[in-house]
Design brief:
123 residues; globular; four-stranded mixed β-sheet; Immunoglobulin-like
């Protein structure tokens, strides 16, 4: 194994912090993590704004019973178990627009109203 530095890492951009220290800018392939709590009958946060082409990592937990999270445009559909165990979903926001976030597991009489919105803005 070589001790040579990766040329891509050597040319990666750096930002200078207020205290003069160098802070490495996150690589484009590092996903942005968004934590979501699903409860009867909402998602918190209910509105998520990201940039086109951004990698997203949703970490979803339930605050009460069994729920699901679905974003059809990005083929996201996962069951979120009762008990607080997180479900992790990663995808790339490849299209600009507003996309509904829906509960994909029936969770009671207000299930149809359990909605959120993923907003993908152009680069």
């Amino acid at each position: 194994m070589s001790n040579q530095q990766d040329p891509a890492a050597a040319s990666a951009p750096f930002d200078s912090g207020a205290n003069g220290s160098a802070v490495h800018t996150l690589a484009q392939d590092t996903p942005r993590t968004v934590e979501i709590v699903a409860t009867r009958f909402n998602f918190e946060p209910s509105r998520i704004e990201v940039t086109e082409g951004e990698r997203i990592k949703l970490v979803v937990t339930s605050g009460d019973g069994v729920h699901g999270i679905g974003i059809k445009k990005f083929k996201v559909e996962k069951k979120v178990p009762r008990g607080g165990d997180p479900v992790t979903i990663e995808f790339v926001a490849t299209a600009v627009g507003e996309f509904p976030i829906l509960c994909s597991e029936y969770c009671g009489d207000g299930h149809e109203d359990m909605k959120g919105m993923l907003i993908v803005v152009a680069k």
